[in-house]
Specification:
Blueprint (H helix, E strand, L loop, with lengths): L1 H24 L4 H6 L4 E10 L6 E10 L2 E7 L6 E8 L1 E3 L3 E14 L3 E12 L2 E12 L7 E13 L2 E9 L10 E10 L2 E8 L7 E9 L1
C-alpha cells in the first residue's frame, strides 16, 4: 500500500501545482479571475434513522476557491472514521452544464486507507443528475476495500423545491440490499436546504435519512 500513499501525495501535488501554474500561465485570462474569487463554504449533516441499528449523523464540510476543492467527512466511509479530500473543479457547457471534481482523499479512524473519487453534477433546465463516488483502498485489510456511491436524479418544479430518486451503496451499516434505492423530497430557503430521503420504501422497515445544508 506504500505505492497507494505515494500516488495520493503525487495527486495532491499535481492539483495544487496545477492550480497555481494555470493561473500564472494565463495572467490576462478568465482563469486568473476565477482564482481570485473569495472562498465559498458549505456545511451539511445527514442523520440516518436505521430500523435495526443505532442512528448516527454524517457531517460534511466543503471549501472551494476557484479550481481548488477541499472536503472533510465523518462517518461516511465507516462509523468512527473521518476522511480529508482535495480536488480540482471543472465546469463545462452552457445549456447543458457539467460540474466535475476529481478528488483524492485519506481515510483515518476505525477505517484507514486511500480513496480516489469524484463529484459530478449534470444539469439541464429543471433536471439535475448528481453523483459522488469513491473507492476506498483499505490499508488495514485489503479484503475490506470497497466502492461507495451516492447518486440523485432530481426535478425542481420551483426554486425552493426538489423531487427525485436516489441510490446509494454503503458499508457503514448492514442492509439486505447491495444497492439501496429510494426517493427524495427537498426544500430550500435562502442559503439553507432540507431534504428527506426514504431508502427501500417497499421494505417493511425503510431507512430514512434527514439532510440539512447551509452555504456561506
Amino acid at each position: 500500500m506504500k505505492q497507494a500513499w505515494r500516488f495520493a501525495f503525487l495527486a495532491i501535488g499535481i492539483v495544487v501545482a496545477g492550480d497555481g501554474t494555470l493561473a500564472q500561465a494565463t495572467q490576462d485570462g478568465p482563469t486568473v479571475e476565477a482564482a481570485k474569487k473569495a472562498w465559498s463554504f458549505e456545511a451539511s449533516a445527514f442523520t440516518y434513522l436505521l430500523p435495526d441499528e443505532r442512528d448516527y449523523a454524517q457531517p460534511t464540510f466543503m471549501a472551494d476557491r476557484g479550481r481548488l476543492h477541499l472536503e472533510a467527512r465523518y462517518n461516511y466511509e465507516g462509523l468512527r472514521a473521518g476522511s480529508a479530500w482535495i480536488g480540482y473543479n471543472w465546469s463545462f457547457g452552457e445549456k447543458v452544464t457539467l460540474d466535475l471534481t476529481p478528488m483524492v482523499g485519506g481515510v483515518f479512524g476505525d477505517t484507514t486507507g486511500i480513496a480516489p473519487g469524484y463529484k459530478a453534477l449534470l444539469s439541464w433546465r429543471k433536471l439535475e443528475l448528481s453523483s459522488e463516488s469513491e473507492y476506498v483502498f483499505d490499508t488495514g485489510s485489503s479484503p475490506d476495500s470497497f466502492f461507495y456511491t451516492w447518486s440523485e436524479l432530481a426535478w425542481a418544479p420551483a426554486d425552493w423545491c426538489r423531487l427525485g430518486l436516489v441510490v446509494q451503496r454503503t458499508k457503514v451499516y448492514k442492509t439486505d440490499f447491495d444497492i439501496q434505492r429510494g426517493f427524495l423530497v427537498g426544500f430550500a430557503y435562502k442559503r439553507a436546504t432540507f431534504t428527506t430521503y426514504v431508502f427501500n420504501p417497499d421494505a417493511s422497515q425503510p431507512t430514512v435519512v434527514l439532510g440539512a445544508g447551509f452555504s456561506f
